[in-house]
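Might you be able to review the protein record set out just below?
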Amino acid sequence: MTSMPPLPLPDQLEHPVRYLFTDVDDTLTWEGRLPPATFSALDRLQQAGIDVIPVTGACAGWCDCIVRTWPVTAVIGENGAFWMQRDEQGQIQRHYRQSSEERSRNFGLLQQLQTELAQQHDFARPTDDQPYRETDIAFDIGQQWQASTEQQYTLLNLLQQAGVQARLSSIHINAWLGDYDKASSARAWLAQEALRTGFAISDNEVAFIGDSGNDAAMFEQFNNTVGVANIHRFLDSLPQPPRFITTRNGGYGFVELAERLLQNN
């Protein structure tokens, strides 16, 4: 992998892609909405035999809605805590990275931490979707209100000092207890998929597209990585930038990548 600045997205990728992991907020969406062209691109990718797997910090409730109603193969949620996928009978199954006992214990500790931070700092505001989360806590920094850059990094540091994993996205700061992240769960999902199908999966067949620091582990993990144009403000803080970058923001940038993949397949 390269540490050079991202290259413009080429007209054609080197290898056909079978599995596309994608962030959701500000990667599939833009300005809080899912563009119709983006949903259409998801549908066209599915029809072309390209599996799309959102990998998101979004809550379990939102992930359940996505996997039931969008043209996607599976959803990895709450920064890798679980994935949801239909089984052969069409029923949604949840696969967790931790046991129920671990999840219950950790979630209790996290809720206590969130309450303490909210009481001590007026900018430590829980997200509106917190009631629908199962494994992590999330703070709103750009969805219902806009936290300053200083407030964002103060809160991020406070969480890290408390001994939890914390990631900054374009709209939230997510925090959890556990040694998993988006990338390790994406790898675990690929291993399960290879076992299910009986076919090995090459890294050349896998791509990822994202938009923020919350996607850093994915940019480090895979070779075929793409940032949508709005990732520019995070590039200086990423240990490994994406390999390519689109010309358009959010879901419109996702459509650019989808067009390339559809041409290759």
User: Anything to note?
Assistant: The helical segments are 36-47, 60-69, 100-120, 149-161, 182-197, 216-221, 250-264. Residues 45 and 156 are 36 Å apart (CA to CA). Residues 100-120 form the longest helix (21 residues). The mean pLDDT is 96.
